[in-house]
Specification:
Oligomer: single chain
Number of strands: 16
Distance between the termini: 30 Å
Shape: globular
Number of helices: 13
Radius of gyration: 21 Å
Strand content: 15-25%
Length: 436
């Protein structure tokens, strides 16, 4: 079996031969079809505007991939992306406004989900039921309960799932992990994680407006509560409202917390979570999620701390986002631009490494490799995506309830009734929370 580490040594497009489940045998889970050099994996994209489109472009760099279908609730986006793809591939994709109709297409082997967070759960579960493998953007879901049911669905239907936390496929991050594992930093007592971005503070508020022509806003809302249309709750800024996202904590936080948890070999819930937050920097902001947030995750012999101040773009070490591992021999600081080691006095040598290639191309190629071999151990498994998303939600819930929390991941309960109310969303009819 190809390991993550060996995969990173391959070129971005050199893929080993393997197995893939043919569409007509999906329901029986018979994995006996050997792909030849000319075989194609057909994919469909749900959510075509931003991250989904970027993910698709990375996937299409693989010569064995065809995108045969696009789905979006905004006809303007859908038509434009359809025209772009037709030009790129010299073949027009099918266009859909309802992802369920797209999933009925038996020729589609896998789907990519690039929709707002509140849609990830239903779309992934339905895709797994339909026999499709799934590449889903992070965070895995917009709630803890949705994370749990998505993991169940992937296991029940035996689907390959890659979560879009592409740093898991980056050589820069693997080398960072190797350095941490070497023990050269000494005892790591604290990990600091931060992300400060202007886009996460929305100013000023504007009145609701008519729904733009070509937008199926009812479908965009889906299981979220009914409400009128506002441009600042829509394209690009929806994640700053609790019904659809979790602010910087679930956006950048999932990426960076993933590296913190990976570096410290964490695979379960923390002992305790404490947090404080609010719109302190810009009280007149329209966003619901907090522009200022501090979260402390407590473990037996170290802590991980998250912080953000939305509306600003500066931070420690001259980096507006990053992660810091504080060891007794030195400090390792990393983000996507580089990782560096700052020695404590002369206990260890200074180190600096910069990235070589685009993590996302490696990440999508890893997805293809795993689909071919029916290997569920993708670079970022659904279990790991669930873990990181839960950590982000723990931080937000602790800040929203202003309570030190303990979460029991087996009983699916907090030590606080108000926090328990935030574990599972209430889906708006006729949508129903999926049962697996």
């Amino acid at each position: 079996m190809i390991t993550r580490r060996n995969f990173l040594k391959k070129s971005a497009t050199a893929l080993a031969g393997g197995l893939i489940l043919p569409s007509f045998l999906e329901d029986n889970y018979l994995y006996g079809n050997v792909l030849g050099a000319n075989d194609r994996i057909n994919v469909g994209l749900i959510g075509c505007r931003s991250m989904g489109w970027g993910d698709l472009q990375a996937l299409l760099s693989n010569p064995q991939i065809d995108c045969i279908a696009l789905c979006d609730i905004d006809q303007n986006v859908l038509k434009n992306r359809g025209a772009e793809l037709t030009t790129q591939r010299n073949k027009a994709p099918q266009l859909f406004g309802d992802y369920r109709k797209m999933l009925d297409n038996k020729d589609i082997d896998a789907v990519m989900i690039g929709t707002p967070d509140h849609w990830h759960c239903l779309q992934l579960v339905d895709a797994c039921k339909a026999g499709k493998d799934v590449y889903v953007e992070k965070p895995l879901a917009n709630s803890i309960a949705e994370c749990d049911v998505m993991v169940k669905a992937a296991k029940k239907y035996n689907r390959v799932v890659q979560v879009g936390q592409q740093q898991r496929s980056g050589k820069l991050w693997h080398d960072m992990k190797d350095y941490i594992d070497s023990g050269k930093l000494g005892k790591i007592a604290k990990v600091n994680v931060w992300a400060n971005f202007n886009y996460a503070s929305i100013r000023p508020a504007i009145p609701d407006t008519d729904i733009p022509q070509g937008v199926d806003f009812e479908m965009w809302l889906g299981p979220a509560p009914q409400r009128s249309f506002n441009p600042k709750r829509f394209h690009g800024s929806w994640r700053m409202f609790w019904d659809y996202g979790g602010g910087l904590m679930t956006d950048w936080g999932v990426h960076l917390m993933d590296m913190a948890l990976w570096g410290m070999n964490v695979k379960s819930m923390p002992n305790r979570v404490m947090a404080t937050g609010g719109n302190f920097a810009f009280p007149d902001s329209y966003n619901e999620t907090f522009d200022t947030l501090t979260v402390i995750y407590e473990f037996d012999d170290y802590t991980i701390e998250w912080s953000n101040v939305a509306g600003t773009e500066s931070g420690p070490y001259g980096r507006n986002y990053g992660i810091e591992f504080k060891g007794t021999n030195g400090t390792l600081v990393a983000n996507r631009e580089s990782w560096e080691v700052y020695p404590d006095k002369n206990k260890i040598e200074a180190v600096k490494e910069v990235p070589e290639k685009d993590d996302r191309v490696f990440h999508t190629n890893d997805f293809v490799d795993c689909m071919k071999k029916r290997d569920m151990n993708t670079a970022c498994t659904i279990e790991n995506g669930s873990l990181c998303a839960k950590y982000a939600h723990l931080g937000n819930i602790a800040a929203r309830t202003k309570t030190a929390l303990v979460y029991d991941d087996k009983k699916h309960t907090f030590n606080n009734s108000a926090a328990n109310e935030l574990i599972k969303p209430e889906y708006r009819k006729p949508w129903q929370f999926p049962k697996v």
